[in-house]
Design a protein that fits this description.
It is built from seven helices and 15 strands. The protein is α+β, with helices and mostly antiparallel strands.
């Protein structure tokens, strides 16, 4: 975000969207409406983890909530240059990441109370303990880190199949070549990039969007699941805000800031952000069903290159 970005106007727009979002019925509920007491913490075998789930027609389904915010930092696809990751640990930790903030929005800050409730739910279910995820500050305001790794280690998920990367994520096959025989790209690693279109009182619809179109300053809505992963014997599990989808709500305030900057003698092209970074014996289920947001068929086919 440049110095011409109107943070106050963006915050007000975010607040208006969050107020409206809780009134709309969609596939995934707003995080503000999550009733954690009615959710289950389920042990999953592949990959080993605990997840916040609900029963849908007798099937355990991962709960995904919607969290609106303003992008303040990101490391998103496409991967278009060779990566320096060479060790297994470096490859394992490669991820797509976004940090969103409310820029002082009280509704956004109130989500910290929901995080605490989710944390307590996991803490009561995992005997090894759980590392608190927490919010992080951004220029004095609340912010939250969301990410999804590109890979799952094959040895931890031998029953899962590899899914090829989309051309929007790995156009040069860099990730595909890097994974070798030790890693797969599974459902856990897939992130949907979307544009949310709202037409008056009608239910919103979604179209696929390339991840390169998301910029700092955009108002977005993230689809987030809660997953706790083991960190080794004798260590607590790590509770992660796992990014499942990212939907563009509005780029209006970012575009206005670029116009203002250009009108005041700034560069004609938007500069990159300087801080962007180019078990146990419990009974569990093998996998847990994941929700996907339904997109327009034609858009989905174009996204997959069909």
């Amino acid at each position: 975000m440049n110095s011409f970005y109107d943070g106050e106007a963006a915050r007000l727009a975010l607040d208006a969207f969050m107020t409206e979002a809780v009134q709309r019925k969609e596939e995934n509920i707003p995080f503000a409406m999550l009733e954690s007491d009615g959710a289950d913490v389920t042990f999953v075998l592949q990959p080993e983890s605990y997840r916040l789930t609900e029963n849908i027609d007798g099937v355990k389904e991962e709960i995904t909530v919607r969290i609106p915010g303003i992008i303040c930092s990101k490391t998103l696809p496409p991967v278009e240059r060779r990566l320096t990751a060479t060790t297994k640990n470096q490859i394992r930790n490669l991820r797509q990441y976004v940090k969103i903030t409310g820029l002082g929005s009280l509704q956004f800050a109130d989500l910290e109370e929901k995080v605490e409730l989710v944390y307590q739910r996991f803490l009561g279910a995992i005997k090894e303990g759980v590392q608190h995820p927490g919010f992080t500050p951004h220029e004095g305001d609340s912010a939250i880190h969301l990410h999804s790794r590109y890979f799952t280690e094959r040895r931890f998920a031998p029953n899962l199949c590899h899914t090829p990367f989309s051309k929007d994520v790995d156009p040069l096959h860099i990730l595909e070549d890097l994974r070798g025989a030790d890693y797969i790209h599974a459902a856990d690693n897939d992130v949907q990039y979307l544009k949310k279109i709202q037409d008056g009182q009608n239910a919103p619809r979604y179209e696929t969007l390339t991840p390169s179109e998301f910029k700092e300053g955009d108002i977005v809505e993230a689809g987030v699941s809660f997953v706790a992963y083991p960190q080794g014997k004798g260590h607590p599990f790590k509770l992660v805000f796992t990014l499942r989808s990212l939907a563009l709500i509005s780029s209006e305030h970012r575009m206005m800031s670029i116009s203002q900057r250009n009108a005041n003698g700034g560069p004609q092209r938007e500069a990159k952000n300087g801080n962007g970074k180019r078990m146990g014996e419990e009974e569990g289920i093998l996998v847990v069903k994941r929700k996907y947001i339904t997109t327009t068929p034609d858009e989905e086919q174009a996204h997959l290159g069909l």
